[in-house]
Amino acid sequence: MILEIKNITKSFGGVVAINDTSFHINKNEIFGLIGPNGAGKTTLFNIITGNYKPTMGEVFLNGKKITNTKNYKIVQEGIARTFQNIRLFSSMSVLDNVLIGLDNKANYSYLETMFRLPRYFSKEKQIKQKAIEILEFLGIDKYKDELATSLSYGNQRKVEIARALATNPILLLLDEPAAGMNPQETKELAELLFTIRDKFDITILLIEHDMKFVNHLCDRVMVLDYGKTIFEGHIEDAIKDEEVIKAYLGDFKHA
Ligand SMILES: Nc1ncnc2c1ncn2[C@@H]1O[C@H](COP(=O)(O)OP(=O)(O)OP(=O)(O)O)[C@@H](O)[C@H]1O
Q: Which stretches make up the ABC transporter domain (predicted)?
C-alpha cells in the first residue's frame, strides 16, 4: 500500500467537503477518484498534498504519517501533482517551467551558489539535461525554448506533467488530466500514463470526469458523493452499483 487515507473529514465553516473518507492505493496502481461536481475530489487532493489541513483523520505515504506536513516537504517525500486549471508560468519557456520542479532537488550550498563554484555548474548542467530528457520522453522537447503558454492545450498539460515528473515522485496526482483534450489527445494521454507508470515506477491517482478514459486506464476507482465514499473497487462493478448510478448516472452512460 503506498497511500492510505484514514477517516479524513474536511469542513469549511458549515460545508463538510469530505466526510469521514477512507481508502488506500496500492503501489503501481492507476487509481481514479470520481464523483459529481462539488463531491470533494479536489479538496482531497489538497489534503494529500498538504495544501489543506484536514479537520480530522490521517494520511500515510508508504506507512509514514504525512498529515499536516507542509506542501514543499510532501513534494520531497515523493508526491507531485498537476492542477485542474493548468498552472504554468506564462512568461517562462517550457524548459524553465520544468526546471522549476527540479530546482527543489538541487541542494548546493550557499557558497557554491554565491561563487558559482564548479559543482554549481556541473549540477546545473545535469539538472538541465534531466529536464530535457523528460521533455523528450513526453515528445515535447522541440518546444523547449517556446513560451509555455503558447503551446496547444494538450501540450501544456504535458509540460505540467513534465514539471511534476521532474521532482522524482513516487505518487503522481493528476487533476482532470484529459479535460479540454480532443479524443485523439485523450487516447494518447492514456497510453502515456501507462508508460509513465512503468518507466518511472510510479503510482498514479487521478480525478477525471471522462468515464471512457477512466474505464480504459484505472485499475480501481473510488466514487465520492457529497464528501462520502459511496464505492471503492473495480470500475465494472461501479457501473452496476445502484448508489453510484443514482449519484452519477449521466457520466456513466458513456463508460
Ligand atoms: N477553500 C474552500 N472554502 C470553502 N469551501 C470550499 C473550499 N474548497 C472547496 N469548498 C467546498 O467544498 C465542496 C467540495 O469542493 P471540491 O472542489 O473539492 O469538489 P470537486 O469534487 O473537486 O468538484 P469539481 O468536480 O467541480 O472540481 C464544495 O461544496 C466546495 O464549494
A: 3-251
Mutate to test the pocket of ligand 1, among 42, 174, 211, 221 (most ligand atoms within 8 A of CB): 42
Alpha-carbon dihedral of residues 137, 142, 144, 149, nearest 10 degrees? Answer: -100
| Per-residue pLDDT at 52 | 95
Q: Provide the pLDDT confidence category of residue 211 given band limits of 50, 70 and 90.
A: confident
Q: How far away, in angstroms, is 15 Cα from ligand 1 center?
A: 9
Q: Is the domain of 113 the same as that of 148?
A: yes
Do 66 and 175 fall within a single domain?
yes
* Ligand 1 center to 84 CA (angstroms): 12
For the chain, the domain total comes to 2
Buried/exposed 235-253: b ≥16 CB within 10 Å, e otherwise: beebbebeebeebbeebbe
Which of 135, 152, 168 is the last residue in one of the domains? 168
Range of the domain at 65: 1-78+170-255
For residue 24, pLDDT beyond 70: yes
Mean pLDDT across the chain, nearest whole number?
Answer: 88
Instruction: Kindly list the protein residues whose Cβ atom lies closer than 6 A to any atom of ligand 1.
Output: 12, 15, 17, 35, 37-43
Q: Do 68 and 120 share a domain, yes or no?
A: no
